[in-house]
Write a structure and sequence with these properties.
It contains 5 helices and no strands. α1 runs parallel beside α3. It is mostly helical.
Length: 84
């Protein structure tokens, strides 16, 4: 049985890695690769893993993916879930 949530999570993690490598090796076209987090109702364990991967693998000056996850977490309804 295929777990669609796990497949989506793996795709998101791959996108984070591709984005980080594109930034590291200065490949602008690849850096513009679309990153979709998907609906915020995703499994928060996986979402935390994505957030950690973004902040561990991108420089502080690279605000693209960082701003995306911060704006998602800034929503008052989601803040508590993100902080946990």
């Amino acid at each position: 049985m295929v777990d669609n949530a796990m497949i989506s999570h793996r795709k998101r993690m791959n996108n984070v890695r591709v984005n980080a490598l594109a930034g590291k090796y200065n490949i602008p076209m690849l850096k513009e690769f679309k990153f979709k987090i998907g609906k915020f109702a995703c499994d928060f364990f996986h979402y935390r893993e994505i957030i950690n991967a973004i902040f561990e693998n991108t420089p502080d000056s690279d605000l693209g993916l960082r701003n995306t996850v911060v704006s998602r977490c800034a929503n008052a309804r989601n803040l508590e879930k993100c902080l946990n």
